[in-house]
Write a structure and sequence with these properties.
heterodimer; A: 124 residues; alpha/beta; five-stranded parallel beta sheet; 5 strands; 40% helix; globular; B: 545 residues; five-stranded antiparallel beta sheet; 17 strands; 21% strand
Chain lengths: 124, 545
Amino acid sequence: MDKKRILIVDDESGFTHLLKLTLEKTGNYLVCEESDGTRARETAREFKPDLIFLDIVMPKIDGGDVASQIKADPVLKNVHIVFLTAIVSKKEAASGGLIGGFPFLSKPVTLEGIIQCIEETLKN
Amino acid sequence: MLQSFPDQHYRILLIEDNPGDALLLSEILSEIKNSPFELIRVAEQLSAGLQSIDSEKPDLVLLDLSLPDSHGIKTFRQVRNHAPQLPIIVLSGLDDSELSLQTLHEGAQDYLVKGQFDRRLLGRAMRYACERQTIEEKLAHERNLLRNLMDNIPDYIYAKDLEGRYVIDNVSHYRQLRAERTEDVVGKTVFDFFPKELAVEYHTYDQAIMLSGKPLLNHEEPGISPDGAPRWVSTTKVPLRDTQGDITGLVCIGRDITERKLAEEELLKANSALATNKEELLNTLADLKKAHEDLRNVQLQLIEAEKMKSIGRLAAGVAHEVKNPLAIISMGTEYLSHERFSEDSNIPRVLAEISEAVKRADEVVRGLLDFSAPKKLEIQDVDLNAIIEQALVLVRGEMQGSRFNLEKQLQVDLPLLKLDSIKIGQVFINIFTNAIHSMTEGGTLCVRTYAKQLAGVGPNIGDSRSESFRVGDSVAVAEIDDTGHGVPEDKLNKVFDPFFTTKPTGKGTGLGLTVTKTIIDLHGGTIDIANRPEGGARVTIMFRI
């Protein structure tokens, strides 16, 4: 079975690095890190991910704009996007709703939570 | 009577053309003992007599009517017209009763027939004539004085006889009746001057006074003037009595007090207007005070909103900067927990404690975000009991594992309330969780709801701290009792302060009740926490119905 390809776009390189190590250690995922939001689309075209974890607050561009670029790209438009953000209140986190139409995870996350999210999103 | 003028001296003019008669008269006069009379002149013609009246100013004229230059009643009239005040005794050779009556009627003091009087009769006639004249002068003087008095005072005065006919009145009165002279009024009644209804009223009053003999003093009564204008009159009416004490009519002194009455009415109106103005001023003052209070509240709310905005920005910044490192720590511990890199058996426990610490830090940051989240309510008509039931379901997990009792006393017909059900649900979850956490050994959680009308001053009723409710307001009350350890008395006034907690370190964020209070405040409700005498705490929440 092919490994699922996960792209993490987040300026927190420490976090992306640990997430990559942890996910890849399960043996089920191939993870690519991108710490520069402006390069996200380019990296995605090269890496061809099944799912992108996208930070919202980044220095040069925010996650919402990156999501728009990817959804506007004919090659990438069907790639799943999940926001992974620090700025979510208890109520928003508990509501299980969407941000801008995309599902989201609130930092900090557990490995279990991440894997559950990946599997459910890709199943749909 | 004669003795009343003992020192008087009367000067007599005799107008007589017959020397014999003149001599005879002179002799009679001289025969009168201690005579006060002095015959100063005998005029043989009328013209001479008139001259003598002018020049010698006699006190009495003895007048023969048949003179060379005048005859009969004409003689008398000429003397009378020449000196109207001078007493005249007519001496006539004719015993003519018609002529005598005529002269007496026209003012002669006496009519004596020559040859039919002696010195006694003449003396008495002359004395009476002079005395009568003096009395008449006095009477005339008094009449004149009375008339002047009556006509020169502004009050109107009149007298009436028993039938209500005017007998006398003054200038003010007849002018008030629109008459030109007293003569236009005398003999008439009120029916000649006033509308019938009013005239009947006046007449009845007058009759009552004359029948009862009781005077009416300073009686103020409405009336109308003969031209129909409404007037106010103050009258004093006194019964008139004759010398026998019998009532013969009444006398009235009246005063038109219309101007005074109008002034009094104006004064009353002004007073009333003043009272109204005062009331309006007080109302305006109360409105101003309320407006000022409202403004102050709005200002406080604005300050609070601005503060919350700042806190919100700060919280978002803190969340981002804290949560990212937390995410790294969290992910790091995840990685390490799957790696066997040491024989140290404590490693899994250390990693678990790190994970727990991350969770706690994350809870605090989330609480801060909730506390500073925009305060928008989604108000709907909701059933408070249903919200409480849902919240109880959500905290059921917390009650497992210990000996907990749950008592519910929810009023079934509680009216629907205008609330944000999600936020109020959060409130009850917070309070139930706190109650359960305070009962470390287990206990009873009692939830009660009921509606009531506020009857007295409570902690949140019409006091200066919070004027949420007033006496008479209908409210829905929710009471949550626990049997836990309660709140230390010295901490009771701090329970709603941010970051205040009585829970052991790591058990609470210190923001739960702060958020709860904020939500209740946004709904215009109140929340109070008190220790129960029997132990544990009671939280009382009230919402306006």
